[in-house]
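Following up on my earlier thread - several people asked me to post the actual chain instead of describing it. Fair enough. Here it is, all 65 residues.
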Amino acid sequence: MKINLFADGADKTGILEMYQNPRIDGFTTNPTLMCKAGVNDYATFAKDILQVIRDKPISFEVFAD
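Reply from S.P.:
Thanks for posting it. Predicted structure:
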């Protein structure tokens, strides 16, 4: 059995540090975590992360106002 390990969070520095860890297979985040991390512009946050991480899956939870 193969297990994929995804890191969950919204701290950009932490995400980019974990990206260097070969055991991390991808990333997830959600609006609650982004709010707690002080992210005000979710779309810009996602685009910034996607500019750096191009070779691992990332899940940005969708929400609506």
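The first strand starts at residue 6 and ends at 8. That should answer part of your original question.
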